[in-house]
DNA sequence: AATTTTAATATGTAGGACATAAGTATTTAA
DNA sequence: TTAAATACTTATGTCCTACATATTAAAATT
């Protein structure tokens, strides 16, 4: 008899720790039972009994769910399910020095994609007041443009404001955590920012242009970033 | 003397547990020391000593970092830093029944934004082979379009393929976790999918059209979703 | 020198003990 | 009788000790 492809026939030994398994089981349990935020969960001792693990292991798993914002616990009252913070745990690990290069590149592209897709929501939600504030940022920038140190700050301020204008808090937070990554990947460049289309140009497009014109402007504004993308 | 605004003067009592603090301290420590993936970390006992907490508390914090993929541990060898999975923890909590409505809406918009921003990368990376596969999906859809049950599957297949064509694994995974949310928000609708621009139209735009034409087509394809966005 | 055996060590798991906060029941005082 | 003070109960938070287990390092054997 032939031996054949071993790692198809033999299941890889699971290096899973018990806390890992308990975590999975708890997540399954919460979803299967379709608990809603506010619902009370079983007590620790009941869970240890049901799962057949020590309180220690259980608490390591619960600690994870607590980090995800999935559960909240109070003394004596026990645990309740709560609405998780979907970005919270992502924020913790957003460090360009820790994340691998492929993912960094992916994130870079992700941000460009978002930036190009913003026009639709932006034109739906833009207000006169917001545009004025954006213009102020762009003008401030022009005044102090000589100083290299300020350039990054202005970049951040301007694009940050744009995301804020979408009224989408999640989008805003998301872009905020992408910033350090973006900064890390472009900080060595000495490319004069903006290219053909400056921030001020974008403001004007936002004021008087169409959605498509704005998008086209944004594309040209980001052109030198797109240039760097690999096929 | 005036009392004034209390909750500015008096710091809110921190309900933070020790595991929370240890987690923060560890994250700070890892970033400050600028450890790189592969570097060995101090042993549990050294950390308990340095932090002045029990091994139990420390392990609850470590358990979280382990979930984030930030650290890996092996018996006897200790712990090493590793490249975290930035989406992993997000995937765990992506459940439309648990996430609050505002965030759900945010996510919905986030996906639309991505979809509108895809054209640039798509036109950079599209290959003949991919387009053929996409066309196949679109044609298959046309053949079985009568059955309501298949509609969602086709939606998923088609748009999933598009994301895959970007060659961006993170983007792909991201869209994949957004799917259930999207599905949850639109499942009650009986709007005939596609509107003016069908999947097959999009394929043709991808084949012979320009980047901007494709984007315009995508916009019209998604038009009835955009219609639902609130100002 | 190569191989086997033994020892050492760091993490994984278990279980007991007590602290603490927050409800609940009971007693006390007006 | 009711309000306030007190004692009790309970579930989580923290600490500690002990031992299992895997894996590397050292020692012993051939």
From TrEMBL, chains A, B:
Transmembrane segments: none annotated. InterPro entries: GntR_C (IPR011711), TF_FadR/GntR_C (IPR008920), Tscrpt_reg_HTH_GntR (IPR000524), WH-like_DNA-bd_sf (IPR036388), WH_DNA-bd_sf (IPR036390). Keywords: DNA-binding, Transcription, Transcription regulation. Residues 16-84 form the HTH gntR-type domain. Pfam families: FCD (PF07729), GntR (PF00392). The keyword Ribosomal protein does not apply. It comes from the Bacteria. This is FadR family transcriptional regulator. It comes from Chitinophaga hostae.
């Amino acid at each position: 008899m032939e031996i054949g492809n071993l790692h198809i026939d033999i299941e890889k030994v699971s290096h899973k720790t018990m806390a890992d398994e308990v975590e999975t089981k708890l997540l399954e349990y919460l979803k299967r039972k379709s608990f809603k935020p506010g619902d009370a969960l079983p007590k620790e001792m009941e869970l240890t009994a049901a799962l057949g693990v020590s309180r220690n292991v259980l608490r390591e798993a619960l600690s994870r769910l607590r980090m995800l914002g999935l559960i909240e616990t109070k003394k004596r009252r026990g645990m309740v399910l709560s609405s998780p913070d979907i970005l919270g745990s992502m924020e913790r690990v957003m460090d360009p020095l820790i994340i691998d290069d492929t993912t960094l590149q992916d994130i870079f592209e992700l941000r460009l994609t978002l930036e190009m897709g913003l026009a639709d929501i932006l034109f739906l939600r833009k207000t006169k007041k917001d545009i004025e504030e954006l213009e102020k940022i762009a003008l401030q920038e022009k005044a102090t443009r000589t100083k290299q140190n300020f350039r990054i700050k202005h970049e951040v301020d301007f694009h940050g404001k744009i995301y804020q204008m979408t009224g989408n808090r999640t989008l805003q937070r998301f872009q905020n955590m992408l910033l350090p990554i973006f900064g890390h990947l472009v900080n060595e460049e000495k490319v004069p920012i903006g290219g053909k289309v400056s921030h001020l140009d974008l403001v004007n497009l936002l004021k008087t242009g169409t959605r498509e014109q704005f998008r086209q402007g944004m594309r040209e504004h980001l052109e030198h970033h797109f240039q760097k993308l690999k096929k």
